[in-house]
Amino acid sequence: MATAIETISHPDAMRRFSKQQRRADRTVAFVPTMGALHEGHASLIRRAAERADCVVTSIFVNPTQFGPNEDFEQYPRTLAADLDVAAAAGCDVVFTPDTKTMYPDGVHCSVHVKGAIVEKFDGASRPGHFNGVATIVAKLFNIVQPDIAVFGLKDFQQTRVVSALVRDLDFDVELDLAPTSREANGLARSSRNAYLTDEGRARAALIYKTLQQAARAAAAGEGNRGRLEQLMAEVLSADTGIRPDYAQAARAHDLSTADEYAAGEEIVFLLAAHLDNVRLIDNITARIGA
Ligand code: AMP
After folding, report:
1. For residue 2, is pLDDT > 70?
2. Which CATH number describes the domain made up of 191-287?
3. How far is the CA of 275 from the centre of ligand 1 (A)?
4. What is the mean pLDDT of the chain?
């Protein structure tokens, strides 16, 4: 059944809508997505609806955050179903710009992210990815002009990048970071899970199990990065079909690394792995126990 939810495709119309909300003293919460909406996105939209008078969700598969050999072309595009998911979760307006309106004349001006937050992990594996993310988020913030924006901790490194964007470029937007929604077996929900077979989804549960074991070791007092990363490599090696890209431990607040983490430090374990040609990422945070 088609859902009656307002869609806006042009940035000018989107900006007009947001200005009207502001004039009517209504707050706007924003959930940027690339579509193929699943329960993880829905949980963000529900959270946004609790925090503001009006929720805008954007659906835009942003070409500038994909590398030349990545899955931009294949990325699932399921707009009709997405509108139903968004409406059911409490979204008021879906912003669906196309590439031509977002980048009418290519990219002459973009946001450049640097430092520890992008030196490793997906920043190293996907060169340019976070510049693309920061640039599109800046553009979307300027168009939607939200009071609050909700991002998922599923993309942990992205949350560090967006936090730096807001802080360093003085965006007047409050960030709300939401927990990761998971399948019953622990697999983090992701639009890319659609590429997996049922068997692949079952096997991918090992990724979260690996993170949980590392988090348990850290909470029990293990602060040695080499040993924590070795533990993750060993757990993951139980399935030789899962090819890790990285499985590492960093400080949660700025993604800096040290050989030894001290008791009380908050650590994030970040993992990316290929399974059946699908690249999956996940993470978990833990405090080093005394
Ligand atoms: P994407 O459509 O993958 O760009 O994701 C849009 C937003 O949804 C981002 O802030 C993601 O971090 C968030 N998100 C994606 N998957 C999940 C999940 N399983 N749980 C919570 N948030 C998620």
Report:
1. no
2. 3.30.1300.10
3. 20
4. 97
**Cα distance between residue 3 and residue 86, in whole Å:** 9
Q: Which of 10, 38, 41, 129 is catalytic?
A: 41
pLDDT band (50, 70, 90) for residue 3: low
Q: What is the pLDDT of residues 128-170, one digit of tens each?
A: 999 999 999 999 999 999 999 999 999 999 999 999 999 999 9
Q: Domain segments of the chain: what residues?
A: 6-178, 191-287
164-173 long-range contacts, CB within 8 A, separation 24+: 164/113, 164/115, 164/117, 165/111, 165/113, 165/134, 165/137, 165/138, 169/111, 169/138, 171/138, 171/141, 173/30, 173/141, 173/146, 173/147, 173/148, 173/149
CATH homologous superfamily of 6-178 equals HUPs (3.40.50.620)
41 is known as an active-site residue: yes
3-state secondary structure of 249: strand
Q: Residue holding tokens 């639009």?
A: 191
Residue nearest to atom 10 of ligand 1 (CA): 151
Pairing, β 93-95 against β 174-178? unpaired
**pLDDT band at 4, cuts 50/70/90?**
confident
Ligand 1 center to 287 CA (angstroms):
24
Q: Give the side-chain half-sphere CA count within 13 A for 125.
A: 16
Where helices occur in the chain by DSSP H, the ranges are 11-23, 39-51, 79-89, 99-102, 116-119, 122-125, 129-144, 156-168, 198-203, 205-219, 225-236
| Pocket flag, ligand 1, residue 188 (CB < 6 Å) | yes
Separation of alpha carbons 141 and 221, rounded Å: 41
Q: For the chain, how long is the longest CA-to-CA vector?
A: 58
